[in-house]
Amino acid sequence: MSEAKIDRRELLPLLFENPDDYLFVSGLAGAAKDTAALTHDGDNLYTMAGTMGAAVPMGLGVALNAPDRDVVVVTGDGELLMGIGSLVTLASMAPANLSIVCIDNAQHGETGGQSGHTGKSTDLETIAKGAGIASTMTITDPDQIKDGVSFLATGTGPRFLNVRVTEGEPSVYKRNMDPAACRHRFRNAFMATG
Amino acid sequence: MTQSSVGEDWPANMFRLMVDSGVDLFAYVPDAGNKRLIECADASNEARTVLLTTEEEGLAICGGADLVGKRAVLCMQSSGLGNCVNYLSLVNGGKFPLLMMLSMRGDYGEQNPWQYPMGQAVDAIFEAMGVLTFKVETPDDLGKATVAALHATGAGAQSAAIILTQKFLGAKAF
Questions:
Q1: Chain B nearest CA to A100, separation (Å)
Q2: Do B65 and A61 touch (CB under 8 A)?
Q3: Complex-level ipTM
Q4: Would you list the domain boundaries of chain B?
């Protein structure tokens, strides 16, 4: 596997030039901070700070019920592995409007940087492909981010993009951590605009 | 089929009540107690089903549906509630008014000892995590409990579970 050279804090703004065009669901910890920084904790984002593993199935629930919107799940390698079966459920339902971006730092950054499975022999793209997801890709180098942009824009959905990133802190952003307030915010914004 | 449902298609009645209340997504882990309900949903053009790999996925999927103004139901066996407990944090803390349908094991007439610990913990878990329960013990309870749960999770804005007891379903033979 190629050495990871991508800084996670630079990733999402390069992948999503116009974040207002999407509905985002993010898992807990670093993925939530990076996505909150991208959208300025916008009303098109639902972040988690618990329920590890829930990001992919929640994004699936959004995508199936908002077929006219582009839905993006931002997760991390640890969070994704805790709910890894949801990739199978997602593949069977196959919503064309859903993309998964996994920020894979091969460690549990939030809890002290403990080593994760993807630093050993586990390859998340291979798992996603085996689950039956239509389009999969892994990038490791900043020069490949433009390929990731193209993949997310034109790949047959659902799409799974694994991004191997360097060790290091996620974005710094103080987001709303009240799950009920964030539910209202997202729901009201969606119901107002569709 | 079971003793209490001989001569009546209660899952079709339940399906109709749910669809008429706007529930159009049925997430499920297969169980004898939800088999016919899911068949009704699969056969209908007013609903769709999502086969899960584990029950807690269903809570997140139903939560995602709620975020965009839709209603869904998670159908599972009582054993699956044990898999859901942490994700009930999302339901409770986020005030997601989610609907569940639980078919009991480890209850009335159970002969599999593996089913008793979780079956007997169902009420305590739902109470601890703030989910209302509406039990079906007789055919007469079915429609009332279903409507009550639909009202609770609709205008009532609560999370709730319809519990199909083994007194109603009958116990699996071993």
A1: 15
A2: yes
A3: 0.97
A4: 3-169
